[in-house]
Amino acid sequence: QVQLVESGGGLVQAGGSLTLSCAHSGSIASINLMGWYRQGPGKQRDLVATITSGGRINYTYSVKGRFTISRDNAKNTVYLQMSSLKPEDTAVYYCNAVATRGPYEVSYWGQGTQVTVSS
């Protein structure tokens, strides 16, 4: 099992910055991929950024150049640094981990943290 706990959400004005954290515990060695997703009001949950165990990073186009995903293996934490925030970035942000369980890959989710960007 993998447990994920997000923190760092809040209310910020457009143009501001926030950093989200995702502390992970449990069967950490089995994690192959970690990422951040977001779900805006009335919208589906969409990918924001991912980072593999090998350090390969991927961003959705709308956040490139504004968001940075990183990890601190010593602290078992993944971060999402968000800058130049826009009202359309308002969403609940979820941390995700994909871990190997025998022949399967299992996806784990945190509880989510609200990010609200005011105009």
Describe this structure in words.
With 119 residues, the protein is an all-beta fold. It is built from no helices and 11 strands. Helices cover 0% and strands 62% of the residues. The chain has strands at residues 2-7, 10-13, 18-26, 31-39, 45-52, 57-59, 67-72, 77-82, 91-101, 104-109, 113-118. Strands 2, 4, 5, 6, 9, 10 and 11 form a 7-stranded mixed beta sheet that branches. The model has no long low-confidence stretch (mean pLDDT 95).
Indicate the mean pLDDT. Answer: 95
Please outline the major beta sheet: 7 strands, mixed
Alpha carbon gyration radius:
14 Å
| End-to-end separation | 40 Å
Helix and strand string, N-terminal first? EEEEEEEEEEE
* Individual helix count: 0
Structural class: mainly beta
Oligomer: single chain
Beta-strand percent range = over 45%
Inertia-based shape:
elongated
Percent helix, as a range, is: under 10%
- Number-wise, the strands total 11
Uncertain spans:
none
Protein topology:
Blueprint (H helix, E strand, L loop, with lengths): L1 E6 L2 E4 L4 E9 L4 E9 L5 E8 L4 E3 L7 E6 L4 E6 L8 E11 L2 E6 L3 E6 L1
Parallel strand pairs: 2-11
Antiparallel strand pairs: 1-3, 3-8, 4-5, 4-9, 5-6, 7-8, 9-10, 9-11
Structural features:
elongated; 4-stranded antiparallel beta sheet; 7-stranded mixed beta sheet; 119 residues; single chain; mainly beta; 0% helix
What is this structure, in a nutshell?
0% of the residues lie in helices and 62% in strands. The chain contains no helices and 11 strands.
